[in-house]
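I hope you will forgive my troubling you with a question about protein structure. I am sending you one protein, given as its amino acid sequence and as whole-number tokens for its backbone shapes. Thank you for your consideration; the sequence and its tokens are set out here:
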Amino acid sequence: MARRNRQKTAASSTGDAQLVGKERFLDLLRTRQLIIEPMLDPQSQIRHVGVDLRLDCFFREFVRTEHPYVTPAKDSDDTVLREIEPFRDSFFLQPGEFALAQSLEYIALPNILLGILNGRSSLGRRGLVVHATANVVDPGWKGHLVFELANLGTMPIQLVPLMRVARIIFLQVGAVESYAGQYEGQIRITPPKADEFVSELRKRGLLRQEQ
């Protein structure tokens, strides 16, 4: 009991973080403080640390447009959302290509949990990057997580809906303000939003434009 009290104190102290193990993870699920649904096969998905996430059937592909380059100064208009048939169709990510996908599971974190997302090593060894940059899930996040998929290999990679593609682990932190960003409550893959700083520079005519 004393050990648990020390752990609880450490986890709630400002600036401290504690890795959430399986016992604590199951308790968070049971009390509905943490929501991960649907979990098709808890026995195989729940690990000693973290939980495996499955691939949904929605993909957002990047396409070529008449614009000379992609700019963070405005909302993206160079993507197309695709839905493929589960149990029948696959999505093939070509070498050197990039696409967005999402988790099958809807996830809702309390404001005391921080999530860290990583791709599965078996896919990484085939050249698949599951998160190009954004692998931190903020406390209070609610929605489907987006996977930033890139194929670094030399052959197309077959991606099948409902396959396990990533693992998320959790750190318990002191209570913080819940996430309230532009992707809050994401149900379908949201296209990239404009960067406010770059957009303002462009609006004021301070940013040089490539000819």
Q: What stands out?
A: Residues 16 and 173 are 6 Å apart (CA to CA). The chain has one domain: 12-203. The mean pLDDT is 88.
